[in-house]
Amino acid sequence: MRKVVLRWRLSTIEASKELSRILDIFDRFEVLAHLGVSPVGIVQLAEIQVKEGRDIYELDELESFQVMEIHEESEDGILASILCSHGLAKSAIELSNLHLQPPYGLDSKSGMEMRVTGLTGAMRRFLALLRVVLPPDNVSVITMRGEMVNGWDKVLTKRQQEVLSFAVERGYYSDGSELTIKELAEEMGISRSTFGGHLQEAERAVLRKAGSDLE
Questions:
Q1: CB 12 within 8 A of CB 111
Q2: CA–CA dist 16, 62 (Å, integer)
Q3: Of the residues 133, 167, 199, the one at which a domain ends
Q4: Are residues 125 and 164 in the same domain?
Q5: What is the pLDDT of residue 28?
Q6: Domain housing 71
Q7: pLDDT score, position 69
Q8: In the prediction, which pLDDT does 146 show?
Q9: Assigned domain for 140 exists
Q10: Distance between CA atoms of 133 and 131, rounded to whole angstroms?
Q11: Which residue intervals of 68-191 are DSSP H helices?
């Protein structure tokens, strides 16, 4: 089981035609819950902050979105039901053994972040799809097997756990693997030197612990 945190920078979002148009209309578009799934799309409960001079119903002009109902308006924004048929969200919902965890959404200052939990095979398929549809700038993979139980949280930093887990997940240590540190670093959206440094320290920590356990 894996939990993956996906992040897209604002510059990446702006390069996507439809998502950039959302940011033209809204300062923030945050999905709080999934109310239902149909062949057409996903009914999302969203909290939306509309830019001054714009209107929430401009969302209907986009191919993948439709305002279904406005529930309330406050200083925090507009709470509304939105029908979303965008390929990114639909893929995360429709893939079996995968769970897209609200809240997630777009922000005109920080870009977009999504959290996905699922079985290894389903996660691999989803990440492969993302690299075609909208490659994330950063992928943080977190093991779900309970670091607090097996004690690795005391041996490895959180970032070392993420990097090592990702390398194992991608098959870096498999016999005959041709994956490089550079390729793994690019997939996680960090520099080669940063990834390599974390991975090297993680490997040393694992070997030290293994050696200690064998004494």
A1: yes
A2: 13
A3: 133
A4: no
A5: 92
A6: 2-133
A7: 95
A8: 45
A9: no
A10: 6
A11: 87-94, 120-133, 147-150, 158-169, 181-188
